[in-house]
Amino acid sequence: MACGEFDLIARYFDRVRSVRRDVAVGIGDDCALLSVDEKKLIAVSTDTLVSGIHFLPDISPADLGYKSLAVNLSDLAAMGADPAWLSLALTLPEVNEPWLAAFSDSLFDLLNYYGMQLIGGDTTRGPLSLTLTIQGLIPAGSALTRSGARIGDWIYVTGTLGDSAAGLAILQDRLTVAEKADRDYLLSRHLRPQPRILQGQALRKLASSAIDLSDGVIADLQHILKRSDCGARLFLDEIPRSAALLRQTSMEQSLQWALAGGEDYELCFTVPEINRGALDVALGHTGADFTCIGQIGPKSEGIQFISNNRPVENIWLGYDHFRE
Amino acid sequence: MACGEFDLIARYFDRVRSVRRDVAVGIGDDCALLSVDEKKLIAVSTDTLVSGIHFLPDISPADLGYKSLAVNLSDLAAMGADPAWLSLALTLPEVNEPWLAAFSDSLFDLLNYYGMQLIGGDTTRGPLSLTLTIQGLIPAGSALTRSGARIGDWIYVTGTLGDSAAGLAILQDRLTVAEKADRDYLLSRHLRPQPRILQGQALRKLASSAIDLSDGVIADLQHILKRSDCGARLFLDEIPRSAALLRQTSMEQSLQWALAGGEDYELCFTVPEINRGALDVALGHTGADFTCIGQIGPKSEGIQFISNNRPVENIWLGYDHFRE
């Protein structure tokens, strides 16, 4: 069957399910055309996912469609932005229609949930990979950046950490979990991370800085510290871990995954003392758990790990693709 | 030498050469933050280039840096937009510093020429490929789309067609050109296409539709015809070809490459009879050649090829990645 590139795009991705009023021209021209309210800023982020590096080659197309967008949404969450538009570049080794149908169904479910519109992209033949460029909108002056943390601010994370690393270990046969409920939970935390869009928006006027946790809290917190010119004390005993993770691994393993396992896509953020009460109310309303795990200190002290009120040596580093 | 992903990005791509006032946050946070004048629309386009498909594996990094951006700029040109921001996703098999230096120098030369800013992206390990998402700005109501062509409008192209296909044929040893000047010219037309940004802007109030020529004029014109619900007559004897191409190939070969060779990145556009005089002035001022190659007709007549005032059969089709 003859199946041209343009037919392909039209069939699976040119779905007019979500039509935003700010999209003057969508898929099908040389460019999409978008309008923006002058009081808003655009937040833009790009993520590439390569088969065998960012996802296992046997991942289901539905999980891949969900996760690739969820990971990209997580960057918007870390800025406090409202999701708006997606550009999708899809490189495929072959035209596999059931794969495309499952992938695009899953992607559109998440797009539609957030009122987003797919505005364009590219489809090419080659080794399986995806690049997503997501755009969101945010009232001018209220974006969360990495550079606003100040000495004395409290360091928080949403949710629990380390579950995604455990889910990956299950998929790679490095961890065996007999209990079905725990196994399903840990796998879903790896394959279906929940972007913290609502929480990012709730933090707009309360947090002094924020980042999403893709490489593990140690590595990601260091981006905040570098941009904010600060140090930090991290309370290891407070690092939040799920009951499933604690049941299925040793304390040491769960802590290592929580600190440096990566792909949790929770938010890490800093809050001045004066905003802590308001934070409890605002984040409480979103229904998400959140935990204070440390405090910003002077740059000269670097990053210190504290357990039982005593310093602990730093032995772990976050995942870094090109580190040798 | 330890060389982390973030060092890499910082060293080669976080250059603050071009600082636009509309970029509130650039590279280095979860998202870039951009502001837009309310009277402007944003034009967005994404292109993926895969090694061995869109460029030869032995292409020089300087040519690749130039061409990948030029191809993306060509989409903005086809809408009449002013170039503004670039997101770059780069997938590399290994960290090769001389390659990165040459690639990024060349990319930044072109970015700086157009007053653009690199606002973010992603760097990952994997088979060599690039995805660029370019954004431009355009006064509301003046974008050139594919859907505005009307019966009787004249069809034009800028520059000459087929040179890029001849340049590719030289690189692939399918064409031998002894004369150095012609060889250099044809190679540069393939490796260093000139995006028609100025011409696109000059066409804003004059053209009824426009597209850039990536797949060959037959294939690309059909996108205008489909979106505009029209047909066309194409005057084969008028298809503009360079002196170098005519010297180095047969008439038939030059016409085939001009019609279906692809990668010329010239503009194809339609102009109502009443705007033809103004077009001569406006495009003349940009210094680019342009040629009337046909006329829009009713949809029922499809696309007709005319030579010596007689119809000719259509035997060629544009390049289509997934056509079997």
UniProtKB/TrEMBL annotation, chains A, B:
Keywords: ATP-binding, Kinase, Magnesium, Metal-binding, Nucleotide-binding, Thiamine biosynthesis, Transferase
Record-level Gene Ontology MF annotations: ATP binding; magnesium ion binding; thiamine-phosphate kinase activity
Binding positions (Mg(2+) 4): 30, 45, 75
UniProt record, GO biological process: thiamine biosynthetic process; thiamine diphosphate biosynthetic process
Keyword Protein biosynthesis attached: no
Residues the record lists as binding Mg(2+) 1: 46-47, 122
InterPro entries listed in its UniProt record: PurM-like_C_dom, PurM-like_C_sf, PurM-like_N, PurM-like_N_sf, ThiL-like
Residue ranges of domain PurM-like N-terminal in the record: 28-137
Domain of life: Bacteria
EC number: 2.7.4.16
PurM-like C-terminal domain sequence ranges: 151-299
List of residues binding ATP: 121-122, 146, 214
Pathway: Cofactor biosynthesis; thiamine diphosphate biosynthesis; thiamine diphosphate from thiamine phosphate: step 1/1
Binding site for Mg(2+) 5: 215
Primary enzyme class: transferase
Cross-referenced Gene3D superfamilies: PurM-like C-terminal domain, PurM-like, N-terminal domain
Record-listed Mg(2+) 2 binding positions: 47, 75
The reaction(s) this protein catalyses: thiamine phosphate + ATP = thiamine diphosphate + ADP
Residues bound to Mg(2+) 3: 30, 75, 212
Annotated binding of substrate, by residue: 54, 263, 319
Record Pfam families: AIRS, AIRS_C
Family: Belongs to the thiamine-monophosphate kinase family.
Something else known: Reaction mechanism of ThiL seems to utilize a direct, inline transfer of the gamma-phosphate of ATP to TMP rather than a phosphorylated enzyme intermediate.
Function: Catalyzes the ATP-dependent phosphorylation of thiamine-monophosphate (TMP) to form thiamine-pyrophosphate (TPP), the active form of vitamin B1.
PANTHER family recorded: THIAMINE-MONOPHOSPHATE KINASE
Protein name: Thiamine-monophosphate kinase
Lineage, uppermost ranks: Bacteria, Pseudomonadati, Pseudomonadota, Gammaproteobacteria, Enterobacterales
